[in-house]
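Entry 12.
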Amino acid sequence: MLLSIEGDEATRKTTMAYTAPKPCVGFNFDIGEERALYGAGYTRYFEDKKINIVKYKKGLAPQAQWDGYDITIYELPRPIQLEDSQLAGMIELWDYFIALFGDAASD
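Predicted 3D structure (tokens):
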């Protein structure tokens, strides 16, 4: 199952996404996963779930780390804003994400 959820800021989109059928693999494109998992909905939705948040480590190849977890969330590399019209790091972000996404979708 693939989910793409859009909406206004602070409307619990990420919380809703992580209530999907388990096991669930997510990719942190923003910084809302901690609030979504451990905020107001924690007791109701996530208290009994085994959660793995995988920190991004620059220079290391992404690896599947979701076995044995209900929810696994991968932090993604953050692009850097160089100027108003220029970002750096988008290729790194895409390469890291697509490698993990391919593994998750084929598992």
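Annotation: Strands lie at 24-28, 51-54, 71-75, 80-83, 86-88. The first helix runs from residue 13 to 17.
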